[in-house]
Amino acid sequence: PSHLDDLPPTMLKKDYANLPIMNSVDDVVKRLLSLEMASQREKLKVKTQQLVEKVRRSPHDNGSFEVQGKLKKGRIRTLEEHLQRHPKDKRNRRFMLMGLDRRRKMLGYLRRVNYSTFENTCKELGIQYSPPQPYTRRLTKRWMVKKALCIKVFQEKQKLQAAERLKKRREWQARARAAREQQE
Prior knowledge:
α3 (65-85) packs antiparallel against α4 and α4 packs antiparallel against α5 (115-125). The protein has helices at 27-32, 40-55, 65-85, 90-113, 115-125, 141-183. It has 2 domains: 14-125, Helix Hairpins (Orthogonal Bundle); 137-183. It has 6 helices and no strands. By secondary structure, the chain is mostly helical.
């Protein structure tokens, strides 16, 4: 089932919903201008408008994090549904992953700046935020051999430096003993 299925088919398209002339138009024209005959894109416009209306702070709020998150949610959900029907569509898969990444970055920023708004936004969007994993290097045989060699070289260098430090410490101790004996 699509996330656009909950829209009533008799609802008018976004561009025609607020026109006063729509009250005096014939039923056939209303049906043509309703969501029953609308394309997927027009349905998505109506759905995102409904989602945005839920989280808007004011009638002119189009750029807050909540609104941006709702817009991304509608687009991501549509792409997910498209990819379920067309699994080999690499272009839209890339767009979906890019949208997910943008939303994750936006939520990460909101989490750092205003945690209460972040929690409310996640609850409204119905998503569970997980912070990005720390960078991990892909282990290859070549990298492991190189790392082992570096560790071995470092340990040998430490042994040589330890012998030098021991030699210098004994010299300092001998000087200190000689200086004490001269003072006595």
